[in-house]
Automatic annotation (TrEMBL):
Domain of life the protein comes from: Eukaryota
Classification via SUPFAM superfamilies: SH2 domain
Protein's name according to its UniProt entry: SH2 domain-containing protein
Molecular function GO terms recorded: receptor tyrosine kinase binding; signaling adaptor activity
UniProt entry keywords in alphabetical sequence: SH2 domain
Record lineage: Eukaryota, Metazoa, Ecdysozoa, Arthropoda, Chelicerata
GO cellular component: cytoplasm
Database matches in InterPro entries: SH2, SH2_dom_sf, Tyrosine-phos_adapter
């Protein structure tokens, strides 16, 4: 994803997924752009059940501003530190 190329670790973008009605996270970790599907269930948004779910996308982002994505994926040793557009 060109918007993230050359950016520092923790730079991220929440975007519509290729699957209608779903979202994805694109984030730089260890110099590489990674992509994660954001699941939407009746309980809210999250990366995988039964891990933490959040009532809104904004609350999911706020959680990972302060907590490492390593909770979700051991290869993502970063937080959502730098939104590509605007503030988190």
């Amino acid at each position: 994803m060109r918007l993230l190329e050359g950016r520092c670790d923790g730079t991220f973008l929440v975007r519509p997924s290729k699957n209608p009605g779903q979202f994805a996270l694109s984030i730089v970790a260890e110099g590489k752009v990674n992509h994660c599907l954001i699941l939407r269930t009746e309980r809210g948004y999250g990366f995988a059940e039964p891990l933490t779910t959040h009532p809104t996308l904004r609350s999911l982002v706020q959680h990972y501003v302060h907590n490492s994505l390593e909770e979700h994926n051991p290869l993502l040793k970063t937080t959502m530190a730098y939104p590509v557009f605007g503030s988190s």
